[in-house]
Structures are given as structure tokens and as C-alpha cells.
Specification:
This protein is mainly beta. The protein has one domain. Helices cover 9% and strands 25% of the residues. It has helices at 2-13, 205-210, 214-221, 347-357, 376-382, and strands at residues 33-36, 47-49, 179-187, 230-236, 246-258, 264-267, 281-287, 290-300, 307-321, 324-337, 384-386, 389-391, 407-411, 421-426, 432-434, 448-461. The protein is globular and about 75 Å long.
């Protein structure tokens, strides 16, 4: 099982640390509280080390929601380092028409807060199953078009394959479904990501937290023969078939599987809702071939370690051949990953996987003396050492809930070889949550900025028998 061996290798890189050594926190000392058993270099007695935030220094620190390197208002980050109006803050601020506090579409407020997703608003909301809105031939429920699916291509149709089933190359709106297959998806460098702090520079804290283990995780992300997932990007509502300029389009992010015909792919049914719409799609635009889509929460299933990228975005530069979209260069998939997504994998599971993968994994007991085994979340936040390489010891950097960045206390005191573990979490509003389970507390939601790079090339979609049927033709069709 190639993925199993890869994952176990990743885990091996994230496990094992001698708890008696002294540790410092580097540039993130201001946003993490640490408890260390060893004497401090300055002669202190270890204990609690905590520094207050400094708004305007360009680093998001404890209780800050942003820090753009200045204290000027009106630029998205106010003089107190709190985020100014943004989609997802539950306050409708122009040009928003709704704001339900999240970045998920198909819930009555589109992920960019620019549509109430209601039929009749002259906006085609693909995430809700609409194929039209206010255009000639559009059904009263916006779910079908007169004539689409009759097998005859009539203007303004781009195609008509005799049905309204999605994801077979001709959509339920009788428009082509230009689709790209994602290639070489991998965790980018620490300088490859989106700007979540507001300072104008890319953020990829997850790459820092993983350190050398990023290369091993990249092996698990490799699709095709590598055993990892295959992802497809299908464009909906693309008016410019060269994909150079388009002020409103939708990019469906889908799991794919090889089709029956060579060079084709089918959409995996796990990526679809009961009505055949994509579970995950991002609203976006194209300006001079620059694609920018999102925000939207994006699911990335990697083996049994499924990740969700909150506030996700997809960016890149489109290419065209023969007047048609042919690929995407310099692709960038961004988002925020809370540490709770790593807390379900603990030392016992890792030991079991080690045996199955042919590895001997030694993970120390928790330094706090508790019986609950250490988790991957403990390792990323608390830090580990492997062959002299420091991995982890990196706290999250993105305030997802708008109350200020959260901090963690890590207990290191214990016998030689114990594993440091998180024993308390401090919410951005100052609320202290005690205990090993604090990472999973619903109040602790902040996460690591993440940036994954990729390229993509044009492929053909093949109909799948498991794809839900499309909408019934509109009356008169």
C-alpha cells in the first residue's frame, strides 16, 4: 500500500522527542505559551513564557486577528489589529447583499456574500443547481432551460447531447464543461500561499509546521500512479472559452477517477450532492488570464487524513490552445487548516500503522502523565526532533472566528523521551480552556495558513452511471 507507507513515513518524521532539552520558540514566542522542564538559558526556572502582542509589526500575534504592518484604518486591518468588514463576519456591509458568517455556498448566502442564492435575482447560482436566471427560456425555478436536452444544438447552446446530466462534457445548461485535471499538487514553500495576515506577503504556516515532513506528505498527495487522490477543476458559466477574461464564473473542485476511454475522467460520486451539483465549487473571475476563485471551504481527502481548507482560494494563470482553455500554470490552492483536524490521529494508531507499513515507530508517553496518547496536533504545536531536524513547535497563525488569535500551553515536563502535549488553549477573547481535549473545543477554531501548488491540463469528462440525472426539461422543451 504505497499511501500507507508514505503516511507512516510522514508520521515517523513527526514523532519522537526528548522532553528534557530546553526549547525556545523562535519568532513565534509572542503567540504561544510554553511550559518547559529544563532550565532556561537566562537562569530562570522555565515555567510560563509569554509576550504580549504588538500591533503594527507585521506578525499576527496572540489576540490579534490581523497585522498588516501599520496602524492605519481603512485597509482591512484596523489600528487595534482587528479585521475590518469582511465576508463571513455576519454583518452585511456594501457591496455585500448577505452575510451568514461562513464561506459555504448553497446555504442561502453565496460564499462571497454577493448573492442570496434565490431564483429571480438575475444571478446564476450554480452551487444551488441553477442553470439560468431571468434569461429567455429559463424555467420559473431556474433549474432548466427550454430546448436543452433535446439533442439539437440551438443558439445560445454550446452543446446538446440529448440529456441534462452534469459532468459528461455538456452541462445541464447545454454549455460545455471545460475541465482540467490537477497535476503535481504539493505543499508549497513557506513563501507560497495567500495573504491571510494582511501584510501583503504570502502565508504558509503549515509548511513551516511540517518542515522536512512536507516532502513526504507531497508523496501522499501525488495522484495517478502515486496512489493519491485525483482532483478535477471544471469551469461553469465560462463565457470566454479562451479563459482570458470573465467577470463571473464557477470552478467546481471535484474528485476524479479514470474513465473507460483513454484520456478521460469521470467525476467521483462522493464529490456530488444528491441533485448532481458539486459539493465544492468556488465563485471567481478571470482578468488577463489570472484566475482568482473563492473564498470557499474546500475538502482535500488524503488517505484517512481528510483535510478541509477553510476560506479556501484557487489561483493560477490560464493557458489556451486553438481558442479553448487548455491548462493552468502556477496553480495555487490556499486555505486554513485548524489543528483539530490532526487530533484524531494518535500515537496508538500510528504504532499500528507502523507495524502494517514495516516501520517501528516509537512515540513517548505524554509529558503531562495523562493516559490519552499524544496526537499529531500535539506534535505540530508542541514540536518534535528527528535526526537533529526540528519539526513543528509552530502555532496556528490565522484567526478564523474573528475574536483574536488563539494560543496554546504545551507541557514538556516529564521523563526522558516523553512527548510534549497541549494541555490548555486560550481563546482569542481570553477564555481559557483547560485539558488535553481543548484543541477540539468548538471555541478553538483558528488554524494554519496553507498553500499548495499545482499545474493542471485539459482533459475530457466521461459520463458515469453513478452520476445523478439532471433536471427535467423546461416546459416547451
Amino acid at each position: 500500500m504505497p499511501w500507507l507507507r508514505t503516511f507512516v513515513a510522514l508520521v515517523l518524521a513527526l514523532s519522537g522527542v526528548a522532553c528534557s532539552e530546553s526549547r525556545t520558540l523562535g519568532e513565534d514566542a509572542g503567540i504561544t505559551v510554553m511550559i518547559d522542564a529544563a532550565p532556561r538559558p537566562d537562569g530562570g526556572d522555565g515555567g510560563v513564557m509569554m509576550m504580549g502582542p504588538v500591533c503594527g509589526n507585521g506578525r499576527v500575534e496572540a489576540m490579534e486577528a490581523c497585522d498588516d504592518g501599520n496602524v492605519e484604518p481603512g485597509d482591512g486591518c484596523d489600528p487595534m489589529c482587528a479585521r475590518e468588514a469582511y465576508c463571513g463576519d455576519e454583518t452585511i456591509t456594501a457591496p455585500e447583499v448577505c452575510d451568514d458568517g461562513n464561506n459555504r455556498s448553497a446555504d442561502g448566502c453565496r460564499s462571497d456574500c454577493l448573492s442570496t442564492e434565490t431564483c429571480g435575482n438575475s444571478i446564476v447560482d450554480y452551487a444551488t443547481g441553477e442553470v439560468c436566471d431571468g434569461t429567455p427560456g429559463c424555467a420559473v425555478d431556474c433549474q432548466s432551460l427550454t430546448g436543452c436536452g433535446d439533442g439539437t444544438v440551438a443558439s445560445p447552446e454550446q452543446c446538446d447531447d440529448g440529456n441534462t446530466t452534469r459532468w459528461d462534457g455538456c452541462g445541464a445548461d447545454c454549455r460545455q464543461e471545460p475541465t482540467l485535471v490537477v497535476e503535481r499538487l504539493q505543499v508549497g514553500s513557506t513563501m507560497q500561499g495567500c495573504d491571510y495576515s494582511g501584510d501583503g506577503t504570502p502565508d504558509n504556516r503549515l509548511a513551516r509546521a511540517l518542515g522536512a515532513a512536507s516532502a513526504l506528505l507531497n508523496m501522499g498527495l501525488a495522484g495517478g500512479g502515486g496512489g493519491g487522490p485525483t482532483f478535477l477543476m471544471s469551469f461553469q458559466g465560462l463565457d470566454d472559452r479562451t479563459a482570458a477574461n470573465d467577470d463571473a464564473l464557477r470552478v467546481a473542485w471535484l474528485l476524479g477517477r479514470a474513465g473507460m476511454a483513454a484520456g478521460t475522467y469521470q467525476v467521483d460520486p462522493s464529490s456530488l450532492n444528491a441533485d448532481g451539483t458539486a459539493v465544492t465549487s468556488l465563485q471567481g473571475d478571470l482578468v488577463s488570464r489570472a484566475l482568482d476563485a473563492g473564498p470557499e471551504d474546500i475538502d482535500i481527502p488524503v488517505g484517512f487524513l481528510p483535510l478541509t481548507l477553510y476560506q479556501g482560494r484557487v489561483r493560477g494563470t490560464t493557458t489556451a490552445t486553438g481558442g479553448e482553455l487548455s491548462g493552468l500554470d502556477a496553480g495555487l490552492l490556499c486555505g486554513v487548516v485548524p489543528p483539530t483536524q490532526f487530533s484524531g490521529i494518535n500515537a496508538d494508531l500510528l504504532r499500528m500503522l507502523g507495524g502494517g507499513g514495516g516501520f517501528m515507530i516509537e512515540i513517548g508517553d505524554p509529558c503531562d502523565g495523562s493516559r490519552e496518547p499524544a496526537t499529531l496536533a500535539d506534535m505540530l504545536v508542541g514540536g518534535v526532533t528527528l535526526f537533529g531536524l526540528r519539526i513543528g513547535n509552530v502555532p496556528p497563525d490565522v484567526d478564523l472566528d474573528g475574536d483574536g488569535l488563539e494560543t496554546f500551553e504545551v507541557t514538556r515536563m516529564g521523563p526522558m523521551g516523553c512527548q510534549p502535549v497541549v494541555t490548555a488553549c486560550i481563546d482569542g477573547d481570553g477564555t481559557r480552556v483547560e485539558g488535553r481535549a481543548c484543541i477540539d473545543d468548538p471555541r478553538i477554531v483558528d488554524g494554519y495558513s496553507a498553500g499548495l501548488t499545482f499545474t493542471a491540463s485539459r482533459t475530457r469528462l466521461e459520463a458515469s452511471a453513478s452520476t445523478p440525472p439532471g433536471p427535467a426539461p423546461a416546459p416547451g422543451g
